[in-house]
Specification:
The structure holds 3 protein chains of 3 kinds. Chain A is an all-alpha fold. Chain A has 11 helices and 2 strands. The longest helix of chain A is centred in the first third of the chain and has 30 residues, at 2-31. Chain A is globular and about 60 Å long. Chain B has a domain at 34-235. Chain B is globular. Chain B is built from 16 helices and 2 strands. Chain C is 35% helix and 25% strand. Chain C has a 6-stranded mixed sheet, sandwiched between helices. The N and C termini of chain C lie far apart (46 Å). The chains are: A mainly alpha, B mainly alpha, C alpha/beta. Chains in contact: A-B, B-C. Chains A and B meet through helix 4, helix 9 and helix 11 of A and helix 5, helix 12 and helix 14 of B.
Chain lengths: 286, 320, 246
């Protein structure tokens, strides 16, 4: 039974991972950019959510679209001022730039918010529900549900709207897209904004069930890229499935071995996939 | 008038450096310069694989930590002289480089960089969790490589020759066939292969001294501050620092990492006097500035930007 | 006359595509052999197979009698096979001289010697005046010459030129033809080429091998091959073969 509990916990947290990773997959798939600042943006999402609740009483589960919108605009700004300049440069410089943005954001967060841990007390999130001998925190369920809804919304957006099609076109062939009348710069900016918004909203949703501090985002950058690789480069559906898988893998590791080694699972999976199945579990092209 | 030999500025520089403990009495300043020297070694070591060969390793802290922990644990558990531990650390780092290199060098671009991060993180988590062996997350005291009195001066006289050795190796690499082959690998691996270069072998050959010097820097650093812990010698920040110092000063140049270390350390110190906890903002800000405005590093300001921009990998290079 | 290259019954499949289908040909010392054929015939794949950038699924490749099947590119180069790429791949952040030095370093470990030899090659190629310029600043024609210079610098005996004329105007093309005729001065005894421009092929080649969709369909002196109905059909379609039914 504990086994089933671990599995279901894994799925629940994996749902949020799926959202974070979808954002990373979008950015990587369309812009071929590994967003090393992904975790930092997630962290900003947690702080927006935190201050929104503590200062204004805005429930994260209701106001996450607002935080997503704020981060979307912020990210578009960062794209236009900084990231745009390394599009087309070698990945060496791209990685260093997004890493620099990450460090700067975390550093600024330390200065402005302080380095201490913060938590919020959201009554609905703390409630426990369950059936049989299985117990789940309502917060986990809510975060999972919202995340999954957003991932589905994202895939619908990509599949059915004009902008979504433009984004997919750029992902498939960046050099041909302008010939079809697509403004690649604009698509890149929007993609970056959307990808970051996913991370930020995930952060907002994680706050009620965890805690935050300026460095909380760091592991999520690598984790989300592990998921992108696991699910098949740049595929949002792949990332979603990969997120669920990784969540389960982590919980099983914690359950069978030790909590502390759950982290290592990320890295080991990452190296194994890259070395032996680089196209990912669900991906097509390598 | 007799012409001075070409290397006189270098000799003067090292002579002045070596003499500093004799005329600098302020311990704070000596410590500052010590850190500049150690991080210059770190940057130079990174430069072999990152600057010349163009492989963006963000996992170099693994070797730094191996050096620090090997020295500490061998002294503590086996009773060795810490200097033996330093040598052990260098050897283990070389072995680590062979293992990590043979795995990570199969990957390209961002996958390579991320795999180096993964490798270093695996080591950090293992160290953090093997409490019995390594004192876990808490860390422990590191042994002193020198005896009191005048520890500051003695550490100085340990660090500067280390810098000198790194400098000498860097100079040799810069002008040798090996160095050109590394640059070829950086610019275009296919072309490199077409001119008879075996990229896998050359990358490993570059990583070996890179890892060894990083480990030596790690040992010296840990001993000076008398402490090892996963949060001081195994953090990803140190990996980023290594790359930043080389890039900031001028990648694939001999003096670049020295300049980079000076600029980085001074900038951090200046910010520290006004705000606490600013080093991340400084690193991040400098990284952004370097990438966007000065990809050739500070050294490119001295000798004409175009000539040095090229060494760090031009934006929009031919192969993309 | 020694046989410098033997390409024997080699096949290579990429996924569903049989890029090279049981192809055999040879190059003797002193020959200039061109691979021709319509687009997609698999000509560059042959070069990639010879130089190790692609490993064959079947067949044998021998250089100067030595089996080099499935070897690595750097091994092929060290044995004496030089090559250029269809899409020129210079080392952009290095100077023209340094680019060629990467080639001359193979046989001249010391920098000074490598640089001197590189200058000799640059002189031959007419690039000496640009020796200190960055490779990224060169116009296309010069970049192609640089590519050839680098390959020559390695001390190759067999030079493989992949569409070296593409993108050059007629005058530049003539220059390159002249250089190819004089390659012997640098120890290059044999040349293999992939080419589309028939005029060049006719004037340079001692022999021509025709590929179509991965198979060899004809071989022989250029004048003969050009009139072979199979070759005409491959390029133009069956309607154009003299006497064919509509």
């Amino acid at each position: 039974m504990a086994f089933v509990q671990a599995f279901l916990n894994g799925l629940l947290v994996g749902g949020v991972y799926a959202l974070i990773a979808s954002g990373m997959a979008l950015i990587f798939g369309v812009m071929r950019l590994v967003n090393f600042a992904h975790g930092a943006f997630l962290m900003l999402g947690t702080y927006l959510s935190y201050y929104g609740w503590v200062l204004l009483g805005l429930n994260p589960y209701l106001f996450f679209p607002l935080w997503g919108a704020v981060l979307f605009l912020f990210a578009v700004g960062i794209y236009r001022v900084l990231v745009r300049r390394v599009m087309g440069a070698n990945d060496f410089l791209q990685i260093l730039l997004t890493e620099g943005i990450s460090l700067a954001l975390v550093g600024l967060a330390q200065l402005v918010f302080g380095a201490d841990y913060r938590q919020i007390n959201l009554p609905v999130a703390n409630r426990i529900t369950g059936f049989g001998s299985l117990h789940f925190s309502v917060g986990y369920i809510l975060s999972f549900a919202v995340s999954l809804l957003l991932v589905i919304a994202l895939t619908q957006f990509l599949g059915r709207t004009e902008m979504g099609r433009a984004i997919r076109a750029v992902a498939q062939n960046r050099s041909v897209a302008p010939l079809m009348g697509i403004r690649v710069e604009r698509v890149s900016a929007i993609t970056f904004g959307l990808g970051v918004a996913c991370a930020g909203i995930a952060g907002a949703l994680l706050l009620p069930i965890f805690w935050t501090n300026p460095t909380v985002g760091a592991p999520y950058t690598l984790k989300s890229f592990v998921i992108v690789v696991l699910g098949g480069m740049g595929s949002v559906q792949g990332a979603a499935l990969g997120g669920l898988l990784l969540g389960v893998a982590e919980q099983f590791t914690a359950y069978t071995w030790a909590d502390r080694y759950a982290e290592v699972v990320n890295f080991v999976i990452f190296l194994l996939v890259l070395l032996f199945r680089p196209q990912g579990l669900f991906g097509g092209k390598a | 008038m007799k012409r001075l030999p070409k290397w006189w500025p270098t000799a003067l520089f090292f002579a002045v450096l070596l003499s500093m403990p004799l005329w600098i009495t302020d311990g704070y300043v000596l410590q500052l310069i010590f850190r500049v020297v150690i991080f210059a070694v770190l940057g130079m070591a990174w430069n072999f694989i990152g600057g010349y060969a163009g492989q963006l390793s963000l996992g170099h802290v693994a070797y730094f930590g191996i050096g620090a922990y090997a020295m500490t644990l061998s002294t503590e558990r086996i009773g060795w002289n810490p200097w033996l531990g330093v040598i052990l650390g260098a050897l283990l780092a070389a072995v680590g480089a062979l293992i990590i290199g043979s795995i990570t060098f199969r990957l390209r671009g961002p996958y390579f960089a991320l795999s180096t991060i993964a490798a270093a993180e695996i080591i950090r988590v293992l160290v953090q969790n093997q409490d019995q062996l390594t004192h876990g997350a808490v860390g422990t005291n590191a042994p002193l490589l020198f005896q009191a009195p005048q520890l500051d001066g003695k550490f100085f006289w340990g660090a500067v020759p280390l810098l000198g050795a790194a400098f000498a190796l860097s100079t040799w690499i810069h002008n040798s066939r090996f160095g050109y082959r590394l640059r070829a690998i950086r610019e275009n691996e296919n072309t490199a292969m077409a001119v008879g270069v075996n990229p896998s072998r050359e990358k490993l050959l570059a990583l070996l001294p890179s890892a060894v010097f990083t480990a030596l820097a790690g040992s010296m650093y840990a001993s000076y501050f008398s402490f090892v812990g996963p949060d001081t010698v195994l953090t990803i920040e140190i990996s980023v620092q290594a790359a930043l110092i080389a890039m900031l000063g001028g990648a694939a140049t001999v003096w670049g990492p020295i300049l980079g270390s000076i600029v980085l350390t001074l900038t951090s110190e200046i910010f520290k006097t006004y705000f606490e906890h600013t080093h991340l903002v400084v690193y991040g800000g400098l990284l952004i500035v370097v990438v966007i405005f000065l990809p050739g590093g500070v050294i490119s300001l001295f000798e004409g930007r175009k000539r040095f921009r090229r060494e760090s990998g031009p934006i929009g290079s031919v192969q993309g | 006359m020694a046989r410098i290259l033997e390409f024997e019954k080699v096949s290579k499949r990429f996924g569903g595509l049989l890029a090279t289908n049981d192809v055999s040909f040879h190059v003797d010392e002193g020959e200039i052999v061109f691979l021709i054929g319509p687009n997609g015939a698999g000509k560059t794949t042959v070069f990639n197979l010879i130089t190790g950038f692609v490993k064959p699924d079947a067949g044998t490749i021998r250089y100067a009698g030595q089996d080099i099947t499935g070897g690595e590119p750097y091994q092929a180069t060290r044995l004496g096979i030089g090559r250029t790429f269809q899409v020129v791949q210079p080392l952009p952040a290095l100077t023209v001289r340094e680019n060629v030095m990467l080639g001359t370093f193979l046989q001249n470990p010391r920098r000074k010697d490598a640089a001197d030899r590189a200058d000799q090659v640059l002189e031959f190629m007419g690039l000496r005046s640009r020796a200190d310029q960055l490779a990224s600043g060169l116009p296309l024609a010069q970049r192609k010459l640089l590519e050839v210079a680098r390959a020559i610098g390695t001390g190759a005996k067999l030079l493989l030129l992949d569409e070296v004329m593409a993108g050059l105007n007629p005058r530049e093309g003539e220059e390159v033809v002249g250089l190819i005729r004089r390659l012997r001065e640098f120890g290059i005894t044999s040349v293999g080429g992939v080419e589309h421009i028939m005029r060049i092929v006719m004037s340079l080649a001692s022999r021509v091998v025709v590929l179509d969709q991965g198979r060899k369909i004809a071989e022989g002196p250029p004048a003969e091959v050009v009139h072979d109905p199979k070759v005409v059909e491959a390029y133009l379609g069956s309607k154009f073969v003299a006497g064919a039914k509509q």
